[in-house]
Amino acid sequence: MSMRLLRWVWALAGAMACLGSLNALADDFPSKPIRIIVTFPAGGQADVLARVLGKYIAQNTGQPVIVENRAGAGGMIGAEILANSPPDGYTMGILSTPHVTYPAVMKPAFDPTALRAITNIAIVPSVLSVNAASSYRTLGDILAQAKAKPGVLTSGNAGNLSTSHLAMELLKQRTGVDILVIPYKGGAPSLQDLLGGQIDMAMGGPAAVIGHIKNGKLRAIAVSSAKRATAMPDVPTFAESGVPGFELNEWYALFAPAKTPPAVIARLHDEVVKALKEPEVRNTLVSMGAEPVANTPAELQAFYADEMDRLGKLVKQLGLKAE
After folding, report:
1. Residue 250, beta-bridge partner list
2. Distance CA 56, CA 47 (A)
3. Rounded to whole angstroms, how far apart are CA atoms 218 and 224?
4. Reduced to 3 states, what is the DSSP secondary structure of residue 241?
5. pLDDT tens digits along 104-157
6. What is the helix (H) or strand (E) element at residue 268, kind and residue range?
7. Is residue 41 assigned to a domain?
8. Which CATH number fits the domain that encloses residue 62?
9. Angle between helices 45-61 and 262-276 (to 10 degrees)
10. Spatial contact of 116 and 257, defined as CB atoms under 8 Å apart
11. Residue 309, domain extent
12. How far is residue 272 from each of residues 86, 282, 283, 287, measured CA to CA in Å?
């Protein structure tokens, strides 16, 4: 046997051994506790999603699921911890829209494009709301006033570079109106000022405003999704309200460290999708104003790349900066 042929045989044997070990890993997976890194504080939407999903993943796999909150820097601290975790499938992380906007204004300490996609859990639209005592009943009312009195109307949101911040900036860009945008330190203080009449409107997640809309304290004007939200079927989209093609949503997706074996990614995907089919999980999502997704790893990877390109360009066009 020639040396060249012998080397080829050795290489093939090595590849087959590697493939066999990966398949064995997938067959035995999981054999110890799984960790879900939540890149945002406890009590928020990402945290709720992780805990309700973790409950069913634990039941279905027989292994505990540990939820670990590692917040800070718009979610980038937790994402860095995820990126540096062993690529063995025992660490997943929930990423969201800020993970594709912050890299446009600050260089992360890891390669955000190298993370391995598992599945998109949910899409959550932003809701533009006004105080119920306001005279504004449609988006057209607001835009007409904004054009008549540039820079006078005020709009709050959950914070700098948040989805709700970008949604209002996109609305301004698409319609040419001048509205004073005020990034708060979270959605709660923005909501309190809206309820108190200190600001004219606010953009935020459905979970925070649904109760106030139902009790008559707030009025929903429009949602930022392409279709009406399941939890708010009577509220029109921005596209229906006269801004064609408008769509900008919060999303929550599960990723794994780079180099996590494809077979393990496939197993994680199957377990998460199985959990997303549970009535309790779906009801939790709908109660938050979220729309379940459960797409494939390839679909999420493409979506993630598109969002990074689209929203990264928007952030740069608007000249937004990190705080």
Report:
1. 124
2. 15
3. 17
4. coil
5. 988 888 898 899 999 999 999 999 999 999 999 999 999 999 999 999 999 999
6. helix 262-276
7. yes
8. 3.40.190.150
9. 110
10. yes
11. 32-123+250-318
12. 20, 12, 16, 19
